[in-house]
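Subject: for your reference before the review

Hello V.,

The reviewers asked for a structural picture of the protein, and I figured it would be easier to keep everything in one thread rather than splitting it across files. Below is the amino acid sequence we used in the manuscript, unchanged from the supplementary table.
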Amino acid sequence: MTEPAFSRFRPHPWHGLAVGPNAPSLVTAFIEITPFDSIKYEVDKATGYLRVDRPQRGASSPPTLYGFIPRTWCKDRVAALSPGAIRGDGDPLDICVVSERPISRSEVILTARVIGGLRMIDRGEADDKIVAVLSTDAIWGEATELDQIPAALVERLRHYLETYKLVPGSGHQPVVIDAIYGRAHAEAVVLAAMADYDAGFGGEP
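And here is what came back from the structure prediction:
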């Protein structure tokens, strides 16, 4: 009997995991933080482990799961889709995943269906946030467009992203979200990030 394929060693979550079963519509998401986290965790690019980035400065918590799509990179092609951006932020493409059932663990992988996104510019750098739903979710799993999830949830996500880097009392706002877009443009951003990755790091491992 043929044994199922497996990784003998843990793959790097950015470079060693597949981008998804049917990208750009169905993608893999590596989850860094959950709605229960008051600490901003971020994958360490050298080791692939989660690193403590910073405590959340404000009182709000992320309204969705938050992570990135493996084998994507926000560079020139992503920046070209973001008017006003000087460059891409040099990170893997961020993704926010809606799940009806609470998921309290980070450092997990899941399959997500892309339905839209938020065009965010952080100090001149393109830092798009793709919005997706857990593909197996009993409530939201069949959604294919952003307007099929509650508008209040999208606004809550926008508010969180506009304030999660804001230092209370500073009055300085480093982040601008100038557009909320649907599935077609979100998939174009995913494809651009995949092409940026291939240009910078090469093809399949």
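For the response letter, the relevant points are probably these. The two ends are 26 Å apart (CA to CA). The chain has one domain: 26-201.

Happy to draft the paragraph if you're swamped.

O.
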